[in-house]
Specification:
seven-stranded mixed β-sheet, 328 residues, globular, Rossmann fold, alpha/beta
Length: 328
């Protein structure tokens, strides 16, 4: 039976300082921008879970269908005694499918920037998987972090990065994430990644502009968080959600547009907004099976398998790290 383990990761004060620095740096840049990783406080994580249930948001349904259909195949790739390390674990819904399909796993390390959610999920997971060591790790997955003892000591590690989160990174950042994952997981590691595939524009646009307005709430919650945690003075009625497909770059862009000319104060610094000026909050790059494989190869990961749903809306790829010297 896996004993409860204390979470590891950066101190809350360090995360808060980084949040403040990133917000001020982004809002004083031209054009203005904010890192999407800060969407995921407790409220933002809950809103995202609502998004995954929306009729327009096909991504989660497609990925879950692939995982359920191919779980046994993925499970056979996992060595006995391996540790599963999920990057950006959130509610761990998808990880549960792999945990059931691979009873040979010894440890599950759930890594997320929102410690509150993974701590809560860990309690349920320990009850549902009593023979498995469950370790929540509060950390920024875009930076280097230390694996918990049980995961580091396992004979092998399997990285899991579902949800098309890789698409939120610029291409060079995505390559950097893959190199960082290789450093963390080690030689011979397996990495299972979910990505959204290129598809008709109307399908993509609807997924990020749902009729119920939940994605808009999710986007605006970032300003609520800045107000609450950094003493910001954003008036949420002064901003609106914009999401559109950039054909040239194969990505959905999300922005918060200022409805009028206004000033906002954050941590004692005043930020000016022109009417119509936007804060670029997220990109969601869309891949092909081939472009994902090419990206992975460039970071030292060799393709092992790729699975898609019937409509080829989504892809889950498996990769093995075996390239010395490619993680620097």
């Amino acid at each position: 039976m896996g004993a409860p383990a204390r979470s590891t990761g950066p101190k809350v004060d360090d995360l808060q300082e980084a949040f403040a620095a990133d917000v001020l740096r982004g809002l004083t840049a031209s054009p203005k921008r904010l890192p999407p990783k800060y969407f995921y406080d407790a409220a933002g994580s809950a809103l995202f879970e609502r998004i995954t249930e929306l009729p327009e948001y096909y991504l989660t349904r497609c990925e879950l269908s692939i995982l359920r259909e191919r779980a046994s195949e993925i499970g056979r790739l996992i060595p006995t005694g391996a540790a599963l390390v999920e990057f950006g674990a959130g509610a761990a819904t998808k990880a549960r499918i792999l945990l059931r399909a691979a009873p040979q796993l010894s440890c599950y390390a759930a890594v997320d920037i929102c410690g509150e959610m993974i701590e809560r999920e860990a309690v349920e997971l320990r009850s549902d998987f009593p023979r498995l060591t469950i370790v929540p790790v509060t950390a920024d997955i875009t930076a280097s972090f230390a694996l918990p003892r049980d995961a580091a000591a396992a004979p092998a590690r399997v990285g899991f990065f579902p949800g098309s989160t890789l698409g939120n990174f610029e291409p060079h950042e995505a390559a950097g994430f893959l190199r960082n994952a290789a450093r963390i997981l080690g030689m011979g590691a397996l990495l299972v990644i979910g990505v959204d595939l290129i598809k008709p524009v109307e399908v993509l646009t609807a997924a990020y502009n749902d009729a119920a307005g939940v994605t808009a709430q999710f986007n605006l919650n970032l300003l609520k968080r800045i107000n609450r945690e950094l003493g910001g003075t954003f008036n949420l009625d002064g901003f609106e959600h914009h999401a559109f497909y950039n054909r040239e770059r194969h990505r959905i862009e999300m922005h918060l547009a200022s409805r009028r000319r206004q000033k906002v104060t954050i941590d004692g610094e005043t930020i000016d907004f022109r009417a119509g000026e936007t804060i670029h909050t997220e990109n969601s790059y869309k891949y092909s099976v081939e472009s994902l494989a090419a990206l992975a190869r460039g970071a030292g990961w060799s393709p092992v398998a790729a699975w898609t749903d019937a409509a080829r809306y989504f892809c889950i790829g498996a990769f093995r790290f075996a390239a010395e010297g490619r993680t620097g």
